[in-house]
Design goal:
Number of helices: 11
Oligomer: single chain
Distance between the termini: 27 Å
Shape: elongated
Largest sheet: 3 strands, antiparallel
Order of helices and strands: HHHEHEEEEHEEEHHHHHH
Number of strands: 8
Length: 280
């Protein structure tokens, strides 16, 4: 298991060093066309369309190769308007100054589900058939005191973890389900405890996704550039991976041993940051 982990880890390092994949570049270009909405507008969007994931105006959708379906009603948000007008002259000796006026107007935006056309660029995804490994992984998670539930109420995330509880999005493909579950399990093992939780999100996400890559690679799934893209999205790099080398390989080896039913899953657990400690 440890040799498998080391081999997979080195492959991931090479992939990250090679830079952003074409799919990631295209994805980032597309996402750059979407606005970061204010808290007020985010609330307005959520109130009118709770299931919204990608929201943009009519023209933005057109630039992305999509068009709003006939009969769709827009989501109303508030758009800032800034214009200038000249102040009244105070005296003959001074030039009149421009006064900046800020106001708002209601505009309409549309969720991707209200549009048709060219698909948006997406991340690469893990593929293949995990077979019996997915059920073994679920058993490993529950045996270590972690509650696993499936829910549609986790926004755009595919999985979230919170100290003894993992939520996975319903309807994931089997390979994706395993990958996401390993990712969240790694968070539980490595990051739920206060004593060993890295402060930076970059480190936490890099560690969790690297564990997912190693496990998926170890059981023969097609990992392509999915994990490398994810890590680089959080600005993770070779240095981040190397600093967490021992933690990643140790955690991945433990999970691999469990899902492959080897004796290593039953030994040397005293030195491993285990889910039992997290659940407690």
């Amino acid at each position: 298991m440890r040799k498998t982990s080391e081999k997979a880890f080195n492959q991931l390092v090479e992939s990250v060093e090679a830079g952003k994949s074409h799919k990631l570049v295209e994805y980032l270009k597309a996402m750059g066309k979407f606005h970061n909405y204010s808290v007020v507008n985010a609330i307005l969007i959520g109130f009118q369309r709770p299931d919204a994931t990608h929201v943009a105006g009519f023209r933005t959708w057109k630039r992305l190769g999509r068009y709003v379906k006939k009969g769709e009603h827009g989501i109303v948000i508030m758009a800032p308007i800034i214009y200038r007008k000249k102040k009244a002259e105070e005296s003959d000796d001074k030039e009149p100054e421009d006064e900046e006026i800020r106001t708002f107007k209601a505009v309409h935006v549309f969720d991707i589900t209200q549009t048709d056309g060219k698909p948006l660029p997406e991340f690469s995804r893990v593929s293949g058939n995990p077979g019996v490994y997915i059920e073994r992984l679920k058993q490993y998670v529950t045996n270590n005191g972690i509650v696993l539930i499936y829910s549609d109420a986790i926004g755009s995330a595919e999985g979230v973890s919170a100290g003894g509880l993992i939520r996975l999005k319903k309807g994931l493909a089997p390979a994706e389900e395993l990958s996401v579950l390993v990712h969240e399990t790694a968070h539980e093992m490595l990051h739920a405890g206060k004593n060993n939780r890295p402060k930076g999100k970059k480190v936490r996400e890099t560690e969790a996704e690297a564990v997912a890559f190693v496990v998926c690679h170890g059981i023969g799934l097609d990992t392509n550039s999915a994990s490398s893209d994810y890590i680089q999205l959080y600005n993770g790099d070779k240095e981040t991976l190397m600093e967490s080398l021992e933690r990643i390989q140790r955690t991945a080896a433990e999970i691999l041993a469990a899902v492959m039913n080897t004796d290593e899953s039953k030994s040397e657990n005293a030195g491993v940051e285990s889910c039992v400690a997290v659940a407690a």
